[in-house]
Design brief:
It contains 9 helices and 4 strands; from the N terminus they run αααααααβαβββα. By secondary structure, the protein is an alpha+beta fold. α2 packs antiparallel against α3, α3 packs antiparallel against α7 and α5 runs antiparallel to α6.
Length: 184
C-alpha cells in the first residue's frame, strides 16, 4: 500500500504551497470552479512544448515571455497574473503539479475521493458505476472514478484511491507466484 507521502512525492513543496494559497483565495472569494478552470487552462498552455521552451528560456527577457502569455493565451486577469508569477519564479514546469494539488484540496474540502481503476480491457458503463458505487459506500464519500486500460496487467483490477492501492491483477498474482517458486 502506497503512503500519502509517497503519493505526494511527485509534487514539490513549492507546488503544494502555490496550490494551497490559490485554494484558500478561491475559497475566500467563492471562486473554486473559476480557479479550477484557470489552472486547467494554464496547465494546457504550459504543457505545449513550444510554449514551455520559450517560457523557460533564460536568454529571452522575462517581460517578453510574459507578453507571450498576454498576447496568445486568452487568460483572464487573475490567470494571467498567476501565469506571470510562475514565469518570474521559474516554475512553469510545475503548472501540472499545482493543478493536481489544487484538485486534491478541492476534493478533500468537498468530501470527494478520486479513484482510478486499471483494467486489461475497457469496462462497460454498468461495471464502472458498480465499482464507483461500491467504493463510495465503503468510504462513505463521493467517488470520482476514472478508468485506465492497461493490457499489461493481463486481467483483474487495480484500484487506487487516496493513499490506498488494491491490486487484484493477474500480472501481480503471477509475479507473486514466481517469487514463491524462486524462493523454494
Amino acid at each position: 500500500m502506497a503512503t500519502a507521502a509517497a503519493k505526494q512525492g511527485g509534487t514539490s513543496r513549492a507546488a503544494r504551497r502555490y496550490a494551497k494559497a490559490i485554494f484558500e483565495l478561491a475559497q475566500q472569494d467563492k471562486e473554486i470552479e473559476e480557479w479550477a478552470r484557470r489552472l486547467a487552462r494554464i496547465r494546457e498552455l504550459f504543457s505545449d512544448d513550444r510554449v514551455t521552451a520559450v517560457l523557460t528560456n533564460p536568454t529571452i527577457a522575462t517581460e517578453a515571455r510574459e507578453q507571450l502569455i498576454i498576447g496568445v493565451a486568452g487568460l483572464d486577469k487573475e490567470a494571467t497574473n498567476f501565469a506571470r508569477l510562475l514565469i518570474e519564479s521559474g516554475r512553469v514546469n510545475e503548472a501540472e503539479s499545482i493543478e493536481d494539488e489544487f484538485q486534491r484540496l478541492t476534493d478533500a474540502a468537498a468530501g470527494r475521493v478520486r479513484a482510478t481503476a486499471t483494467t486489461a480491457v475497457e469496462l462497460s458503463t454498468d461495471i464502472r458505476e458498480d465499482i464507483r458505487r461500491d467504493l463510495s459506500e465503503r468510504l462513505n464519500k463521493d467517488v470520482r472514478l476514472s478508468v485506465v486500460v492497461d493490457p499489461r496487467i493481463l486481467g483483474g483490477l487495480r484500484l487506487q484511491f487516496g493513499d490506498h492501492v488494491i491490486d487484484a491483477t493477474v500480472a501481480t498474482r503471477l509475479e507473486q507466484l514466481r517469487r514463491r517458486l524462486v524462493m523454494n
